[in-house]
Amino acid sequence: MRERIQNRNVEIAVIGLGYIGLPTAIMFANSGFNVTGYEIREEVVKKLNSGTAHIVEPEINKLLQEAIKSGKLRATSNPEDIKNKDVYIICVQTPLREDKTPNLEYLESAVKTVARAMKKGSMVIIESTVPPLTTVRMARLIETLTGLKAGEDFYMVHAPERVMPGRIFKELVYNSRILGGITRESADLAEILYRTFVKGQIFKTDPTTSEMVKLMENTFRDVNIALANEFAFLAHQYGINIFEAIELANTHPRVKIHIPGIGVGGHCLPKDPYLLLSSAKEDFGLIKKAREINEDMPLMAKDLLFEAFKMINLPPEEAVVTVLGLAYKGNSDDTRNSPAYVFIEAIQDDVKEVRSYDPYVSGTHETLEEAVKDSDAIVIATDHSQFKKLNWEELGKLMRNKILIDGRHVIDKPPKGFIFKGIGRGEY
Ligand SMILES: NC(=O)c1ccc[n+]([C@@H]2O[C@H](COP(=O)([O-])OP(=O)(O)OC[C@H]3O[C@@H](n4cnc5c(N)ncnc54)[C@H](O)[C@@H]3O)[C@@H](O)[C@H]2O)c1
Ligand SMILES: CC(=O)N[C@@H]1[C@@H](OP(=O)(O)OP(=O)(O)OC[C@H]2O[C@@H](n3ccc(=O)[nH]c3=O)[C@H](O)[C@@H]2O)O[C@H](CO)[C@@H](O)[C@@H]1O
């Protein structure tokens, strides 16, 4: 297999063509491999084969078209098309259930599809983020379904994906990678495979360690954001601007405080800390507390909005509120677990009308002007670049009352004539 990989002479199937699977499939195809992308959503398959990506990511359409035109990438919904491949890379979603326990249904279904399609000697790679011990459990599942032995008859690896949406094609190449092989040989082969385009370092370990590493990274970020959010809460009580304080604190050589805001969304940070805890019998409570803080941040934005209503004696039930941004982060179309929705749900029964505008998300008002006309308050929930360049004075002229709540530190200097409040902006 070693030489065959180096010569691009192995057939790859990528299972799940979403934010991670599609760029991964494109990357391998444009590195010279024959790649079949298997995806259960038929409308996505159709769109991809016609050369259009269903997600927003810099350069994706150009790179997808290159892969489709060269004949190296083809998408399919037919499991027959992924029979007897050499490498299977699983990139399906691993969300939470309502009760915040991991929902591994997509993963298990993908593993079963792979078990039915693979042959002796195949390599199965899980790129999805999973609770500790899952890869070993999935290897046992494949053994039961195929009668093959993991590490002897097939290779198995957990290769967590660490790319940042918005920079995926750069980070796929330059990030360092962790490869958790069920055996040393599995990790060694996966290293040869990823080395075909990865320029970052590659570290090899066991699958449970690599599962932990991935979850620790996102939990570290989530807990740090919670700390920044707690600082923001204190800043309101002490009457200071937390962003100035953070900038000053970050001049210390060993301090790097994160950015407070209306909440933490996306497919990863809101669930990965729960995945980390899900297989443990006990924990100290810090990670859960951080999650609670971040989950409650939309309510802090609600408090600021309602304080502003009070300042102008506007009964909330008469107020029209325009939310700018539905995506979970700037310049993205991804609305998964977006705090904007939590915020909207928290206010919609108390106010007259809630409108939204997001240039990346369909189903919102067509134009910003239309969304803002005769409204009483604007709440910024996403840091899209274009929101940083708005002419607030002109927009203000369209409004009935001029309340501006900044949930994402988009506004540096409060615009004239507005009642301005921002998360962590306690100086007003
Ligand atoms: N989105 C990110 O920024 C990011 C970054 C790093 C890691 N991850 C992890 O990568 C994994 C995938 O995340 P994503 O954001 O790409 O999810 P996604 O929802 O965008 O993509 C998953 C795709 O898999 C498809 N799918 C589901 N079950 C399937 C099956 N049985 N067979 C074939 N296709 C199936 C879905 O239809 C979907 O298109 C998750 O575990 C996530 O935690 C995501
Ligand atoms: C460890 C790490 O870096 N992991 C990254 C992360 O990427 P992401 O796409 O989830 O993006 P983030 O930037 O983490 O934002 C998430 C939410 O937190 C808000 N936020 C952010 C920073 C801050 O200081 N204050 C905030 O409030 C922001 O607005 C948004 O709602 O997970 C991916 C999947 O596993 C990883 O692959 C990727 O490397």
TrEMBL record:
It catalyses: UDP-N-acetyl-alpha-D-mannosamine + 2 NAD(+) + H2O = UDP-N-acetyl-alpha-D-mannosaminouronate + 2 NADH + 3 H(+). Coiled coil: none annotated. It is an enzyme of class 1 (oxidoreductase). Residues 322-413 form the UDP-glucose/GDP-mannose dehydrogenase C-terminal domain. Pfam families: UDPG_MGDP_dh, UDPG_MGDP_dh_C, UDPG_MGDP_dh_N. Its EC number is 1.1.1.336. Signal peptide: none annotated. The chain crosses the membrane at residues 12-33. This is UDP-N-acetyl-D-mannosamine dehydrogenase. One of its GO terms (biological process) is polysaccharide biosynthetic process. Belongs to the UDP-glucose/GDP-mannose dehydrogenase family. GO terms for molecular function: NAD binding; oxidoreductase activity, acting on the CH-CH group of donors, NAD or NADP as acceptor; UDP-N-acetyl-D-mannosamine dehydrogenase activity. Keywords: Membrane, NAD, Oxidoreductase, Transmembrane, Transmembrane helix.
